[in-house]
Amino acid sequence: MAHALPSEMKPLNIAVLTVSDTRTFENDTSGQYLVDALQEEGHTLADRALLKDDIYQIRAQVSVWIADANVHVVLITGGTGFTDRDSTPEAMKPLFDKEVEGFGEMFRQISWGEIGTSTIQSRALAGLANHTLIACLPGSTGACRTGWTKLLQPQLDARQGPCNFVGHLMR
Predict the structure, then answer these.
(1) Which superfamily does CATH assign the domain made up of 13-169 to?
(2) DSSP secondary structure of 29-89
(3) CB 3.0–4.6 Å: which of 91, 93, 160, 171 could bond 55 by disulfide?
């Protein structure tokens, strides 16, 4: 039996975290893209932060957001590569109640058409923690655009069928 989908958009509260040792809010095009995209879609920016690539600072900031019942989604850009400083996946995995394995798989599949074999160096991932979706994207603006338009935007829309994440995020 199919479930009836809502006919109206349900705005979510979304926090954005940029992980970078070099960026500032003034030159953070990836984080700004995500802020603009989520607001354009009708969602609310719950908070925004920019942190150095430090596993414990990242984990601490995201822990605050997932403990807040008013934050439904955390979008992270940066720290998903293979340099010595990239630690976003290591920071997030212990927080996940459930990993969304398909997110990273689909992100890399979609990215194949855009960047070819370089996509294997992406450690994009997502998971659910305390009824909060955490999605970790690479630091490039193009990767954030791909992740938002091809995966996140539809899955954060209650009207998307046959299923979406919105029902899992309401506490």
Answers:
(1) MoaB/Mog-like domain (3.40.980.10)
(2) HHHHHHHHHHHHTT-EEEEEEEE-S-HHHHHHHHHHHHH-TT--EEEEES--SSSTT--HH
(3) 91
